[in-house]
Amino acid sequence: MTLTPEQVAPQTGRFLDRMEQEELAIVRRAYAKHVLANANVDDARVEAAFAAVRREHFLGPGPWQMPRWTRPYVPTPTDDPVYLYQDALVGIIQERGLNNGQPSLHAMLIAAAAPRPGDHVVHIGAGVGYYSAILAHMVGDTGQVTAIEFDGGLAERLAANFAGQPNLRALKGDGARIEFDPADVIYVNAGATRPADIWLDRLNDGGRLILPLTSDNGFGENPENIPIQWRGAVFGIKRRGNELLAKWISAVAIFPCEGARDAASEGALAAAFEKGGWERVTRLYRRGDLPDEQCWLNAPDWALAYG
Ligand SMILES: C[S@@+](CC[C@H](N)C(=O)[O-])C[C@H]1O[C@@H](n2cnc3c(N)ncnc32)[C@H](O)[C@@H]1O
Which atom of ligand 1 is closest in space to residue 259's alpha carbon? Predict the structure, then answer.
């Protein structure tokens, strides 16, 4: 018997008959509603993307490992994909704490990035591609997603997951340095201490950069129980002509970004977290000579400022 793409979750090889597929589509619609409610986001296009994209296609064969409060990771009871439709992290490389991210966090960030049909989106730290697929769904056939992953094994899985999909190009490399075409959205999914030059250079006028900034406490064990607001912050950066408008979106703890971390910016970031006031930031500057009173974060060659 030949199986249609709808019957097989390709990377899991698990057979799903038509009835199971239809049930799963209903589960996915409910999941999308819960995810957007948890994100406090009302965005029909984001909801439709979460309802359409099959998470099981990307995460390899089940049972899947999910981090829980009680124990670091707990396996799902079986390989039934229904378990993936929770607002929860799923382990990708558990030994490194590398996970498929929290759906409601991504719903909030993707709504802020607002990818539109026809846009070029660059996704940095794509992992195995679940959120790249959500972005590809939103930009549609006339748009393009460039998905970049640093880890060689994950980059191979990313490319395999999108084989033959014309609106997505998977690249292995350092997303803080690799060349890419000018973008309407740059969606970074790893913790930097500073915006990489190429992210700002290649942002089109009107373009949106989603920028997670983390101190050295922004990932892993947190024995001192530092509140998440002091560990990391995601900013939305929007280019308007020569200006870079900046707005705090969310606190975050996230896997570090290779190639976009330096000690001077980390120091400035740690000091800024301690000081507070991130919600008043309105501008990103690519210079380091602004008066301290104007800045939330004042690094040697860039700043996040109040005006
Ligand atoms: C928190 S994981 C998220 C993976 C994916 N977005 C998901 O939610 O399934 C962060 C990913 O960023 C990747 N990464 C770190 N630095 C990177 C860089 N400079 N360029 C591209 N990918 C990077 C890591 O290898 C890891 O896969």
Answer: 19
Q: If you take atom 13 of ligand 1, which residue's CA is the nearest one? A: 125
100 Cβ below 6 A of ligand 1? yes
Nearest CA to ligand 1 atom 1: 255
Q: How far apart are the first and last CA of the chain?
A: 64
Give the pLDDT confidence score for residue 6 in this predicted structure: 42
Atom of ligand 1 nearest to the CA of 106: 8
The pLDDT value recorded for residue 264 is 97
| Cα–ligand 1 centroid distance for 124 (angstroms) | 7
Q: Which residues of the chain have pLDDT under 70?
A: 1-14, 70
Rounded Cα distance, 220 and 253, in Å: 8
Q: What is the pLDDT of residue 4?
A: 40
Q: What pLDDT does 179 receive?
A: 96
149 lines ligand 1 (CB under 6 A): yes
pLDDT number for residue 1: 32
pLDDT given for residue 13 in this prediction? 56
